[in-house]
Amino acid sequence: MALTAFAQNFQPEKKSLNVLVILSKGPWEESILKTAAVPDPRLEVTFINESEAALRVPARWPVLMMLRPLIRWVGKLTTRPQIPVCSPSLACLRFSSQSLSALWRYKPILIDEGIGSFNTFQNFKLEARRKFRSKPLQVLALTAFSLVYRSLRLLGARKVTLFRFENKKPVLNDHVADGYRRVFKMGYDSRGDRLKFDRPVVLILTQPLDEVGVCSREDLVDRIENLALNIRRGGRVPILKVHPAEDPSKYRFPGVEQIEYDGVVEEIFAGASDQIAEIQGFSSTGLITGSALYGIRAVRIDFPDSGTNRGVFKGRAQALFAHYTKTEMESKCLKS
C-alpha cells in the first residue's frame, strides 16, 4: 500500500526515483513487506525498519523543526533533488529532521498504510498511555503530536492520501485513486497470473486476529468456516484470500477454495473485479479499497463480543467503514 500511495508522485519524464521507505511496526513479519514486488521499474526502493532508522530526537530538534519552513522555501529556488522518505507515521519527519544535512537531503512524505493511517489519533492516544503514566504528560504529548500533524505542509512535508474528509465524510482523491488503480493493474499484469472463476464469487479476506488478541485461533477459524458455509447455502461461491502473514493450512475447509496469489488483494480487484460479486472481511483495508476504487460490494463482519471494528477504530477510520461497507445486518436487509 505504501508504494502504491506514492505512485501518483512520479513524473512521466523521470527515468528513475530513489525512495526510502520506513516500515512501521505491525503484527506480522516485516520481511513480508520488504520482499513485496515493486511493479514500477522506475522505482529504486530502500526499505528500513523504524528500529533501524535511528529515530533519535536530538536536543536541537525543536530548532531544526523551526528551520523546516525556511528550508522548504529555499529549496524551491534550487534544482537539487531531495530523496523522498516515506512512512505512514511521523517517522518520516523525525528521520528527515535529525540534522541540518538531513533537512536538505530528505523530503518527508506521509503516506497511507491501510486503515490504520486513518486511525492516527486513536493510535497515538494508546501510545501516549503506554509511554506516560501521568495524565498531564499524555495530554501534552497528544497536543504536540496534533500540532505537528496539522502543520505538515508548513514544515515542508507532504501528505499523499487516498481520501480527504469534508464535513467528516470521506471523499476519494481522484488523482491519487488513479495512481492506485494504475499500479495495482501493473502489479497484476506483471505476475502473469490470470484468475478465472466459473461465476461471480464472494471473496473472504482473512486476517491474523488471533495473533493480536482479538480472538482465539479456534474462534477465528470457526467464524471463517461459518461464513463460507452460509455463503454456499445462499447459492453463491465462497473463495478465501488468506492474509500473507497467516499460514493457509489453518483454513482448509472441504469444498472451499483458496486463492493462491502472491500479490495484494487489490491487484485481484484490478484484474478480476467483474468476477467478484462481494467482499467479506473483518477490518481489512481491502474492504474499503475494493468498494471505493472498484465498486465491489463490501460487507464487514464482526465477532459478537469483541467489536472488531467498533472497539479499535474511531473517527475517520470508522467513517470509512461506515461509508464504503455494510454490516452483516445491513447486507441482509438489502437482499431481503
Overall outline: globular
The tally of structural domains comes to 2
What is the CATH architecture annotation of the largest domain?
Answer: 3-Layer(aba) Sandwich
End-to-end separation in angstroms reads 36 Å
Strand-pairing-aware structural class: alpha/beta
Write structural notes for this entry.
By secondary structure, this protein is α/β, with parallel strands linked by helices. It contains 13 helices and 13 strands. The strands form three sheets. The protein has a six-stranded parallel sheet, sandwiched between helices. β11, α11 and β12 form a beta-alpha-beta unit. α6 packs antiparallel against α7 and α8 packs across α10. The radius of gyration is 21 Å and the shape is globular.
Itemize the secondary structure elements and their pairings.
Layout lengths: L1 H5 L10 E7 L7 H4 L8 E7 L11 H15 L7 E5 L3 H5 L4 H6 E6 L8 H12 L3 H16 L7 E3 L2 E4 L2 E4 L1 H18 L9 E5 L11 H17 L3 E5 L15 E2 L6 H8 L3 E6 L3 H10 L2 E4 L14 H10 L1 E2 H8 L1
Parallel strand pairs: 1-2, 1-3, 3-4, 4-5, 8-9, 8-11, 9-10, 11-12, 12-13
Antiparallel strand pairs: 6-7
